[in-house]
Amino acid sequence: MTFGLKKLEQLFGECGKPMVAWQIDPFGHSKEQANLFALMGYTSLFFARLHYLEKEDRLKNRSLEFIWNCSEDLKTQIFTGAFYRNDYGPPNGFCFDALCRDDPIMDNPDLEEYNLDEKISSFVTNQLCTAHHFQTSHGVRVFYSTPSCYVKGVLESLSARLLTKADDFFPYASSNHSYWTGYFTSRPTLKGMIREASSLMQLCKQLDALADLGPEDDSDIEIMARASALAQHHDAVTGTAKENVTKDYEKRLHKSILEGEVIINDYLKKIYPRKGKKAPTHILCPLLNESICQPLRNHSTFAVTVFNSNSRQFSGLVKIPYYSKLSMVMNPKGGRVSVQLMKTFQVSSLNSHHKAPFELVIPVEVGPLGYATYIVDNSTSVRSTIPLTTVRITSRMITDQRVSIENEELVLSFDENGLLAIFEEKRTNTSYEFRQEFFYYRAYVFRPDGEALSVGKAQLEVVKGPLVEEVRQTFNSWVAQIIRLKKGAKHIEFDWIIGPIPKEKSKKFNPSFKYVDSEPVSGNYYPVTNRAYINDANRQLTVLTDRSEGVTSIEGGLEIMLHRRCFVDDHWGVEEALDEPGNGDGLVARGTHYIALKQSQVKLLCFSEIADHKGKSYILFQFSAMKRSLPEFAHLMTLERWDRKSLLLRLEHIFQSQDDVEYSKPMRVDLTDLFTQFKVVRMTELMLAANRNISSFDRPNPYPSNFVITLKPMEIRTFKLDVDWA
């Protein structure tokens, strides 16, 4: 939004700042999106599609126009109008597009086809019929206008208060058995690629801002922004485009990732070297999810640079494809790091002669808005780790024993079918029954004709080491998974691999506590962009996702749809079945879910060749752009260049008012002397989209020299920072 609105302002000035939002053809509407529009300064919002039963009800009670209450915490609201028709076309008989066959208006009485009186009568009748379903009661006066003028007229002429709404328009249904919920998951690899490209773009914006890179890098970032913006089209990220169109989206995103690689190297050239030396070139490996990084195969010594775009310290593990049985890893200070080397999980659907035979797990520490470089040397004769315990077990072999993995916080136990059965917290000495299974639906489109069917038992491979313990499950030729516990982690990773599949595929998480919901399956699916949870009075199950997916709650658990393959088109406009070819046999998708108590942090891996360890004398192996981490409640959402002398900053309070005893209240963030690469000299508060000053909305701007910001729960505040670069 900010990118597009900035372009409009550059082209049209003040007249290019829209006040009305028009959502063209999404399949359902979120009140959070309405909340964002309100925070951007929009006065109103219009759309067409809503659930056919709600549409009938709103027609009867004349509530197609209403006030949408968007946030319990921020008390935002926006005037909203649902169109009388379910589309964006003209009234019947008045389509003058070249592809339409409606009669044109013939206003010359001398013509045999003269129809002006007939057209006027038809138009007035149509508008009076439409007006009957709205609160306003005017006659008919026809003139050219704008949505802003229309909203002003409506609000000034109302004799009664409009009704309000406080929830979402999800799920969307066009008829009794036509719930548009499958698209929440359609094309999962595209959804994952969009998320990765967006994350990389945010990192590159930060690097450009921090190092004061030049106009060429600004142009590279614009390429990335255009690709990510286009991918938000209602037929792109939804997965509802044709296959060839989808390939074009992927091509643009791939190009944006290559531009990101250029920006990363430009940043490191400016920050990395000392004494006038040249920084080594870094590369991104886009096939890490397939355990492939070809450049690493041919180098005995290389650098792994880990970026942290989060505003808090990152301490954790990174995993890279590895092509040797030997390894020595040095941290940024030159000390040797204890790592873990393990064989790659062999899955038939991901077989490739480029696939690395091993994976190397490295513990890393990266400062806020920083990076850290680790040197990996496989030429040494010393093996990297203590011997691992690797046991292959089939479900037939498990009789009286329980397979389990653990770390300092958790113990996971598996039953005789190879399925997760018990979840134990060591600190509280509490155990819970916990099942996680894969299911598939028998219908081609998402109109399930019965309950989901389980894929059955799993063969297990158990890997235990000093840093990671894993249970690797193989269910059949198209479903596999790694359940992973990392050292010191309070969350579980579920690394799923699905495809090529014959049906739609979902995953169920069932804790032992109960959650009641009686809605049908398809009508109870909702979009999840990053997390979903269910709870009772004592416990909460939270699932974090790495891409947009569909989720529902059934029988006290969460069901998340992971992958779809449809052999028949549903005839809703695509005119092509959702049958992604992948490499020819059908698409294989891989992703990760986190069962966690808190949000995981963002990290990015880059690789470069290092000839020897002597580079240590001229390379800055560790760097942080912040002198201190932000508090737990605060998230640095945006840091990017705004113009040649200023930056754009967004801060978010990530807690709701009832989330936390300590943090669910207004809290302060001090930007004074916070950043290492620039000094803030002036701060101006903007609306969320950054195209209007807060002061233009009768809100004073109290930040000419005071850089302490107060954030209320769930609040996002936007600032233009005038800065001096160090």
TrEMBL record:
Protein name per the record: Alpha-mannosidase
Any GO molecular function: metal ion binding
Name of the top EC class for this enzyme: hydrolase
Coiled coil: none
Cofactor note: Binds 1 zinc ion per subunit.
Keyword set includes Magnesium: no
Record GO cellular component, one term: lysosome
Domain of life where this protein originates: Eukaryota
A single GO BP: mannose metabolic process
Taxonomic lineage of the native organism: Eukaryota, Metazoa, Ecdysozoa, Nematoda, Chromadorea
Reaction equation(s) it catalyzes: Hydrolysis of terminal, non-reducing alpha-D-mannose residues in alpha-D-mannosides
Database matches in Pfam families: Alpha-mann_mid, Glyco_hydro38C2, Glyco_hydro_38C, Glyco_hydro_38N
Annotated source species: Angiostrongylus costaricensis
Listed cofactors: Zn(2+)
Residues covered by the Glycoside hydrolase family 38 central domain: 178-253
Alphabetical keyword list: Disulfide bond, Glycoprotein, Glycosidase, Hydrolase, Metal-binding, Zinc
EC number annotated for this UniProt entry: 3.2.1.-
